[in-house]
UniProtKB/TrEMBL annotation, chain A:
The lineage of its organism: Bacteria, Bacillati, Bacillota, Bacilli, Bacillales. The keyword Disulfide bond does not apply. Keywords: Cell membrane, Membrane, Transmembrane, Transmembrane helix, Transport. It comes from the Bacteria. Pfam families: BPD_transp_1. SUPFAM superfamilies: MetI-like. InterPro entries: MetI-like, MetI-like_sf. Signal peptide: none annotated. It is a multi-pass membrane protein. One of its GO terms (cellular component) is plasma membrane. This is Sugar ABC transporter permease.
TrEMBL record, chain B:
The keyword RNA-binding does not apply. This is ABC transporter substrate-binding protein. It comes from Cohnella abietis. Residues 449-516 form the DUF3502 domain. The keyword Repressor does not apply.
Amino acid sequence: MDIRRKPVLSKWLIHLWFIVFSLFCIIPFLYVISISFSKESDIAIYGYQLIPRTITTFAYEYLLESPKALINSYLVSITVTVLGTALSLIITAKLAYVLSRKDFHGSKPMSFFVFFTLLFSGGLVPSYILIKNYMHIDDTMLSLIFPYVIMPWHVLLMKGFLSDIPLALIESAKIDGAGEWKIFYRIVLPISKPAIATLTLFIAFIYWNDWYMALLYIDNQNLVPLQFMLYRIMNNIQFLSTSLQTGNISIDLSQMPNETARMAIAILAAGPILFVFPFFQKYFVKGLTVGAVKG
Amino acid sequence: MNKRTTKALSVALIGILSLSMTLAGCGKNETGPSKPAATETASATQTQEAASPQTTDVSKLDNVDLTWYFGGTSQADVGSVEKAINEYLKDKLNINIHLKAVDWGSLGQKMQLANASGGGYDLAFTSNWANDYYQNVNKGAFLPLDDLLKQYAPDIMQTLPEGGWEATRVNGEIYAVPNYQIWARTDVVWPMKELTDKYSLDVANVKGYEDFTSFLEKVKAGEPNLIPFENSKVGEFGNAVVHYGFDEFVGRNVPGVVKFDDSNLRVLNQFESPEYQSFVTLMRDWNQKGFFRKDAATLTDSTADRKAAKLAVMVGGTVKPGGDTEMKSLTQKDVLMVGVSQPVLTTSGIIATTTAISKSSKNPERAMMFLNLLYKDKTLFNLIAHGIEGKHYKKINDETVETIKDGGYDPGTDWVFGNQFNGYYRNGQQPGIWEETIKLNESAAQSVLLGFSFDPTPIKTEIAQIATVTAQYVPLLETGSVDPEKFLPEFIDKLKKAGSDKVIQEAQKQIDAWKATK
């Protein structure tokens, strides 16, 4: 006997809404892909098109002609992302675990301490002075990693998840003779896999997509991450095209990469994360609840 | 949380907030440029040796580091150039130079942070379009240079004409050394040579934009693949201000101009002027004739069109000897350089490229000596501008060089490093253009406002409000996308509501005060 109800109109409307929304997200990206495979002269004559008129891999060849800088920035990005994510994850998890323990008396004020920085930050200049004049790590890889090691939002996310672990579980482990470290590593971490996976993705995203810290602290060309390289190209072209008209300056724009090359860099920069994303998808359902009741 | 902690916390919060406000107050210098006393190192050296640098005993100079921030792309092989410079200056100056190229787009932000965190540099590129000169001076980031120039820079003083110094003065003090390159500003259009030949346009008769109309009509009819005239949302009026005789001393797209030759120094609102009206009317006419790209009003950047040689006539920049060859390297086609105004020396044209010394510099006198050498010593200048011979460039003849591809050093911006006229010519440049440029600078008429610098602080709010209005109307009117009959009065009205009259009054007040001191 078939007890499935007929799909109602409202359901289809919701479907439609999401289909349209997805298209809005996907189409610009398809454009970028299309432009990166187009001929420069086609873009000048016909404008942007979803299907390239003549498909060419010229832009990618041009980029990979002198791949040293590109490969180098890839390595920097990957190193920073891997090291940063590992460090950030372990510290965030430990802090969040301590805050989530109801039998720890300092947890409330400490949580507030973390939460407070979410609302009020010292601002750009103090953090710049801290990195440059006190820690002296400007122009090193550490300056790309440290500023994002503890992000209050991530700590609260993790804390929300860990708070659901019943205290009884921890107490029974204690009775069985486990110490605090053992409880954390052998019990707490394994049962919070979904949250860890979610956090890993979030943190990796932040490290992978960050160009701002590089803008502030990096002078050494060998430490330029991929995104900053991309940002510089785009930002420069935009800045110069407006200011070249104002003053007595001449900058050779013919050395700047063309539209197709810029889009090709964008594709190369976004690529890896796009492939990683689907593997984490399944953990999202569980991991993304901040203190809300899970179904 | 119980009552007591809440109370304690709120007290703490108020404390923190008020503290942060106080600190924020400290950071701002409300009283305009402060006049720093000459730094201790400088005064110490002065007492020791009140002599000119020629007799400075180099063996007594201990080795110091000099850091120089400027705009441009970081060069892979900058290390070997730095080494070569240090070696070359070993018995002249005994320094360790650090050349730090920052992208033009982020130079201003980077320098602001550096200043906020105590500097840590000696020399910096500063201008009215990147790493803002007046902002830096107002914040007290730069040293006043008058004494240092007298003491350590006889060659700079000899080289630069008086007008250059006039332009860099703020409240009577010099805070930067103008780089010696093209200073005169002449509005210019760049038609493609093959088209002017084909459609017989005699550029000698071209005096202004309107003289192009019939030529553009022929291009439109005969060349369906080309865009007759360059235009974008930046607007074209800025490329015609000199043609109309305006000195834009307040800034681009801010009301307030003075006619170059108006000895009464009366401030006008350029957007209310008959010149602006006739200009946007012409643009409207051209737009309806289809001379621009359809999306001109939203187009941010037409570099791609330039590279593809799709523009029959390009606009922007200034007339300068060798400008047409520069354009050719971009478009790969022969381009004519047609001046549509007389050459004029303005403050903004000169401070477009200057070098300042940081207040945080530990060795300002050494930085000044180094600058002086850049203006005098051709070998040093070419080391910085072109790199090492045989490694980064090849000599074609005595005065022309060719960059070696992938050599790892080619900043390509000679005008950043002091005296451009010390440099080799690049392959494709006509020898002799340096001398021509010097002549052009010297023959240019001086604007009546040369040496006046406007302080926007009292009308910051109005300028911000005006910026939102101009951002909306300038692209529409100056690309001819809307009818000026209807939209120009609306634009002027909104400008008035945003406080344009107050800006004009303030500008007039400052100019009158400046005039009184002359």
